[in-house]
Amino acid sequence: MKNIFSRLKLNVLSLALLLTYAFNVKAQIIANTEIKYYRSIFTEENGKIKSIGNTDFEYYKSIFPEENGKIKSIGDKKFEYYKSIFPEENGKIKSVGDKKIEYFRSIFPEENGKVKSIGDMPIEYYRSIFPEEDGKIKSIGNVTIEYYRSIFPEENGKIKSIGGAQIEYYRSIFPEENGKLKSITGKTGSDFDFSPTELYYFILNANLK
Fold first, then answer.
1. Do the beta carbons of residue 202 and residue 18 sit within 8 Å?
2. What angle do CA 55, 101, 44 make, to 5 degrees?
3. Does one domain contain both 73 and 130?
4. Which of 64, 98, 132 marks a domain boundary?
5. Deepest of 22, 23, 48, 130, by most Cβ within 10 A of its Cβ?
6. What is the C-alpha separation between 62 and 67, in angstroms, rounded?
7. What are the alphabetically sorted keywords of the record (predicted)?
8. In this structure, are residues 137 and 159 in contact, taking their beta carbons and an 8 Å threshold?
9. How many domains does the chain have?
């Protein structure tokens, strides 16, 4: 049930909840994962998720556009957003609970505006001559990420390994599976509580930003 709840959150809240996972803000294990939505006169929350199981969601109703309509809290975890003169961070998540998020203000486009650290966990990005990895996450904390540089388009540029965890993709005559994730095996060796699958989807999502 915990895995089902995790996948729901990954799908519906994208980076916000992925960041939440990165700080080890784990939702409680609940028997009921029913999703409810706001029916509200306030446009900032109307139609958005109100609760998943026993976990409630709140949204900012604010005069500040940097936070208005964005997630204010998930359960007891509060979200804050930057109100900044720097476009690299303005309007982005500043903190979740007691974990602060920082962003690169850099001359290098491969990292500029991207997440620099989550709490005390640093994140680095590739500055590379290889397009398969350039600008993508290089490391999270003590875990190094590698990408395929391959003659096979089904895997080229995709995540190859996360620390000690190896990732494979289908090379298949069937389009329904060709190029899709086949397996994640092994352990990342990370010093934080994050499964290989959770970390895979965090990296996948972050690399799209």
1. yes
2. 50
3. no
4. 98
5. 22
6. 7
7. Signal
8. no
9. 2
DSSP letters for 170-198: ---S-TTTTTSEEEEES----SSS--HHH
The tokens describing 31, both together, are 């028997």
Q: What is the pLDDT along the chain (209 residues), one digit of tens a residue?
A: 444 344 434 443 445 545 544 444 444 444 456 888 999 999 999 999 898 888 899 999 999 999 999 999 988 889 999 999 999 999 999 998 888 999 999 999 999 999 999 888 899 999 999 999 999 999 999 999 999 999 999 999 999 999 999 999 999 999 999 999 999 999 998 877 778 888 898 898 888 86
Q: In this structure, how many other beta carbons lie within 10 angstroms of the beta carbon of residue 87?
A: 11
Are residues 1 and 94 part of one domain? Answer: yes
User: Could you list the residue range(s) of the whole structural domain that residue 192 is in?
Assistant: 120-209
Residue 134 burial (CB count, 10 A): 15
Residues 6 and 65 in one domain: yes
Last residue of a domain, one of 98, 130, 164: 98
- Its pTM stands at 0.75
103 falls within a domain: no
CB 8 within 8 A of CB 33: yes
Distances (CA, A) of 130 to 82, 136, 158: 33, 11, 13
DSSP state of 187: -
